[in-house]
Each structure stands twice: as C-alpha cells, then as structure tokens.
Design goal:
Layout lengths: L11 H11 L8 E4 L9 H16 L3 E6 L9 H14 L7 E3 L4 H13 L3 E4 L3 H8 L16 H12 L9 E4 L14 E5 L13 E3 L1 H11 L4 E5 L6 H10 L7 E5 L2 E3 L6 H9 L14 H7 L3 H11 L6 E3 L1 H15 L2 E2 L1 E2 L2 E6 L8 E6 L9 E6 L2 E5 L19 E4 L4 E9 L5 E8 L17 E2 L2 E2 L4 E8 L23 E9 L11 E4 L3 E5 L10 E6 L5 H9 L2
Parallel strand pairs: 1-2, 2-3, 8-9, 10-11, 12-25, 14-20, 18-21, 23-27
Antiparallel strand pairs: 4-5, 5-6, 6-7, 13-24, 14-17, 15-16, 17-22, 18-19, 19-20, 23-24, 25-26, 26-27
Helix pairs in contact: 2-11, 7-8, 11-12
The structure holds adenosine-5'-triphosphate and magnesium ion.
C-alpha cells in the first residue's frame, strides 16, 4: 500500500530522513513509533500522526512500532488500549509483532534512574509540588535550587529504594534530575523523574507504587526499541533538550532523533482528549463512537472510510507551523472515495404518499436502474413500480413560488427510471396538512421520456409504497456551530443543538433490507449512507448519513486562497 497520493509533495521530515540516509546514519534504517497514551479514543489528529509514522516506515521499507505510553495509571484503561489497536488496524496499518508498552520497561527505567543517582545526576526532593513550582522560576526569572539538591548519593539511593518499596506515602517526595536551575529552558530546571502514586495500573497491577514521568520514560522507551526518528508534535520542541539529556546520561543502545511537526486542528470540532472525554462523560454525545465525534471510532460508525482519511492526511501534508484545516476538505476526500464505490439507490426520507389514479390496481412493473454511472462495471438492478409511491415532501408545494420547479397542482415531474406524473389533486387531513397527492401518469412515458418530447425539468426519486422498507435515518451536522470551539471560553456553549436529526419513517427501495454496515450507498439527491453498525438490525434498520452531496471544499479553498 502506498501512503502517498500520486505527486504528493515531500515534506521536511522526509528531507531530514533523506539526509540521514545519505550519510548512512543509523545504517540507513528508518524506525518510527506511534506512541498513544491509553487515556482516550484516537481522533482524526492521531490519524495524521499514524499516517505519518506508519507511512514513513512503508515509504522507506522500515518499521513502525505501536507503543502505549502508559505511565499514568490513574487515567488509563484497557478499553482505551483495545479501541486504539482497533482504530490503527482499521486505518490500514500493521505494527506486526511490535506491540509495546512503556510499562514493559518499568524495571529498566527504574535501573536507569538508579544509574542517574549513582552518577550524581538525580536526587530525591522533599519539596511539595507547590514549592517545586515556586522554586522553578519563570520564563524570565531563573529557578532556585532545592535544599535537597546536595543530598549524598547513598542517601538518594536509599530514599529512592524506599520510595519503590512503598515505605513513603503518596506525594511525600519525588526523584528529580539534577541539571540546571538557571537554564533558560524551564524543562531543564531539575524536572521530576518519578513520583509516588498508589494507583492500580491496567497491566502491572499493584506491583509499583512509583511511576516514571512521561518525559523521562519516552526517550528511554524509544532507545530500547531502536527507534531512529521519534516524531512528535510541536509542543514538545522545548522538551527536546531534556530528551537528549536523558539519553546522553545513560548507557542506552541508541540515541533517537526527536523531530516535531504541527498538530492537526480542524474546524467545527475539538481535538483535545480532555474535552472529548468531557463530551462523553457529561452525555453531550452518546459515547466515544457517537457519529458526530471526531474520534476514529465515531467516524467509522458514521461511514468515513480509511481510504478517505488516509487521502486527507496526505493532502494536508506535514509542516512546522500550526494551522487549522477545514472540515470541508475531509468531507471532500470522503465524497471522492464514496462516489467511486457507492451504488445509487432511491430512498425517501420524508415521505409523501402519491396515488397514481390511472395506474391499474395490483399491477407491478420492474424497471432497470443503473447502479453507478461512475462505474461501468456496477451493472443494473430491478426496482418495482406500482400505483402508490412515495416522494419527498419537499418535492411538492401547493402554492409554489417562482423558481420552484418541482411538483405542484397541474404540474409534471419525472419519476426517475419510471414515468412522468402530473398532480391532479391534493388530499388533506382535518388539520389541513397534506397527506396525499392525487396524480396521473403519462402512459406513453415508460422509462421517463415524454412521447412528444416535451421537456420535463425535474426528475425525482421515489419508492413504491407496497415494496418499500421502513427505516430510521440519522442526519448529522457539525457538533459545534462555531469554527473554533476550542478557543471559546466555554466550548460546551458552542454545541450545535441540531447536530443530529432523527427521521423515523423513511422509505427505502427493497434491495436495502439486507444492507450491512460498512456497505455504502448514495441515496439519490440525499448523500452517502451506511447502516449503523450498532443500532441497525433486520426488522429495525438504521442508516447514518455519512456526508451530504453538497461539496463545499472548492468554495472554502477559494476563500482561503483569497485571505
Ligand atoms: P495528551 O494530552 O493526552 O497527551 P495527545 O493528543 O498528545 O493527548 P497522545 O496519546 O499522547 O495524545 O498522542 C499520541 C500521538 O499522537 C502523539 O505522538 C501525539 O503527538 C500525536 N497527536 C495527538 N494529537 C495530534 C494532532 N491533533 N495532530 C497530530 N498528531 C497528534
Ligand atoms: Mg501526548
């Protein structure tokens, strides 16, 4: 599988790798890793990192590991581990036999910490967290040295061992690196390496009561795995000196190179795991896989394809400057993919009953309908026509304004693949609501062309009432009604109250009765749909609209160009 669309531009990380290979750095090897923390579900931002890391391994015939950075047991869960593996596989990537956990290295990380202590590079500090913060200084003011900084090696070793043995309560002290409290880089001002925390870990259980900090565990994990290029997002740029410091102090097998790139931000959504967790926990959505969520599980459920997401990640590229990508680009990639593969079918979402009074009662005709004009091999299917059909309510107006060309009393429209019909009457209920149209059909218009060649402006979709199958259909809009909800003071106040529309009484052509989730259809004039993998079942069909047909990408791209 190639990860690149033809002609996709190269990027600065490839430039770095190409240079490394020229001078035979790492023996020319390329070994990356995707290192999620199992504290939430993966989202579209992670997809960018996955495509980048696994994509580089494919492009350079290298390797990419999946490693769980599970150093914070209080927030991590097996449910997240499972969903992350599922999403990476679904996106189309394979870590082969290289599934790792930072927790696999807890013993080694501990031994390396003792190594630092023995070399006078780490000390046990009894300042409280508040004091540590205060001593750390600010961007403009240097830090102050902890009074515990000068502790002799033996005392540090003894205390650290007692921390591990559980002799000290949570939070009593920490192990810190001994670097430089006057450094211009705050991350170098004696950062914490280990903390005491009695929390059950999803893999190591209660065997540890001290846990390493992410910034300490990460470079060592990379080195143990023989990673060559450790790619992370820009916020870690200032952490790079510490990454290098750790590796320089220790007898690790290799020294990976940390490279930072800009994280993905997308309009009309939030990509912070903390905010996504809040949406789930406070029931603003139906779960991590709610089809409105930017999680890979949610997008998958809604009907996004891995092909479209990989294409999107190729197109947005990899850069050093933060930017926000418009959701319209992702939707555009999705339409391009689905347009090729989705058979066209007819489904009426808001049905209006139409009785064709001059059509013989009990008669059924079967018309040929092409499955996909974009795909000559897709063939045709038979669809039934009978005396009563459904059309969309919005395709009829009793008193049409100018420019409304669809059905109205006395007017004609074409029923796709079938006949031309003319509206002759309207039936209303006691509230005055239209419940049925009376129509006649042009007996000479079989297939949809008028015998005298008179023009028929509008063609509409329909289904035969007798043969239709009922379905619930869910339509989605952006979860947030502002472009940058993440920047709002209260992102929850930006939730779009009409992000979900549930239509309970839709009428589908009969062939859809056995549609499996993951099989896509274009409902004519309505968009691309797939059966909901959780809620749809025989006898109670539920279809999700993956994306509508209206492509806004060209307009958005133009607006961005002119900015
Ligand atoms: P946390 O705040 O929990 O660390 P995170 O979004 O960084 O959240 P991780 O599980 O640490 O989550 O992310 C795994 C990898 O995915 C990291 O290498 C991270 O840099 C990358 N990543 C996360 N979010 C994005 C994003 N929006 N765009 C690109 N890469 C991302
Ligand atoms: Mg992170």
């Amino acid at each position: 599988m190639s990860t690149q669309v033809p002609g996709a531009p190269t990027h600065f990380i490839k430039d770095i790798i190409n240079e490394d290979r020229k001078v035979n750095k790492n023996g020319g090897r390329v070994h990356t890793r995707f290192p999620p923390e199992p504290n939430g579900y993966l989202h579209i931002g992670h997809a960018k990192s996955i495509c980048l890391n696994f994509g580089l391994a494919i492009d350079y015939a290298g390797k990419c590991n999946l490693r769980f950075d599970d150093t914070n047991p209080s927030k991590e869960e097996v449910e997240y581990v499972d969903s992350i593996m599922d999403s990476v596989r679904w996106l189309g990537f394979d870590w082969e036999d290289r599934l790792y956990y930072a927790s696999d290295y807890f013993e080694q990380l501990y031994e390396y910490a003792e190594h630092l202590i023995r070399n006078g590079k780490a000390y046990v500090c009894h300042l409280t967290p508040d004091e540590i913060r205060e001593y750390r200084g600010t961007l403009t003011a240097p830090g102050r040295e902890s009074p515990y900084r000068g502790r002799p090696v033996d005392e540090n070793l003894d205390l650290f061992r007692r921390m591990r043995a559980g002799e000290l309560p949570d939070g009593r002290c920490v192990l810190r690196a001994k670097i430089d409290m006057a450094s211009g880089n705050i991350n170098m001002r004696d950062p914490v390496l280990y903390r005491i925390l009695r929390a059950t870990h999803h893999r190591t259980g209660d065997s540890w009561c001290i846990y390493p900090m992410y910034d300490y565990a990460h470079p060592i994990s990379d080195a143990i795995e023989g990673v060559t290029h450790s790619i992370c997002t820009l916020e870690f740029e200032d952490h790079r000196p510490f990454y290098d410091w750790v590796l320089d102090q220790l007898p690790v097998p290799c020294h990976p190179q940390q490279i930072e790139f800009a994280r993905l931000n997308m309009t009309y959504t939030v990509l912070s795991k903390r905010k996504l967790l809040q949406l789930v926990q406070e029931n603003h959505v139906a779960g991590w896989d709610d089809p409105r969520m930017p999680t890979l599980a949610g997008m998958r459920r809604r009907g996004f394809t891995p092909e479209a997401i990989r294409d999107f990640c190729d197109r947005i590229g990899v850069a050093k400057a933060n930017s926000t990508v418009d959701f319209a680009l992702l939707a555009h990639c999705l339409r391009e993919d689905l347009n090729k593969r989705a058979p066209r079918v007819m489904a009426v979402l808001r049905p209006l009953r139409v009785v064709i009074e001059n059509y013989p009662e009990g008669q059924v005709e079967w018309f040929d309908a092409e499955n996909n004009p974009e795909d000559p091999t897709a063939g045709t299917r038979k669809i039934p026509f009978s005396r009563v059909v459904y059309i969309e309510q919005e395709d009829f107006l009793e008193n049409p304004p100018k420019k409304f060309y669809r059905l109205a009393p006395g007017r004609e429209i074409r029923l796709k693949h079938a006949y031309i019909i003319k509206c002759t009457g309207v039936v209303k209920d006691d509230k005055g609501e239209i419940v049925e149209l009376q129509c006649t059909y042009d007996t000479g218009s079989r297939g949809g062309e008028a015998p005298d060649g008179r023009p028929i402006k509008v063609t509409t979709h329909w289904v035969s009432a007798e043969h239709a199958i009922g379905s619930e259909v869910r339509l989605y809009d952006h979860l947030f009604h502002v472009e940058n909800p993440g920047e709002a003071a209260d992102f929850l106040s930006c939730i779009n109250p009409s992000s979900l529309t549930v239509l309970k009484d839709c009428k589908l052509e009969p062939g859809l009765a056995s549609a499996a989730p993951g099989v896509f259809f274009q409902f004519m004039r309505q968009g691309y749909f797939t059966a909901d993998p959780v809620d749809s079942m025989p006898g109670h069909l539920v279809f999700n609209r993956t994306v509508s047909l209206k492509d806004e990408w060209a307009r958005v791209a133009k607006r961005m160009d002119s900015k």
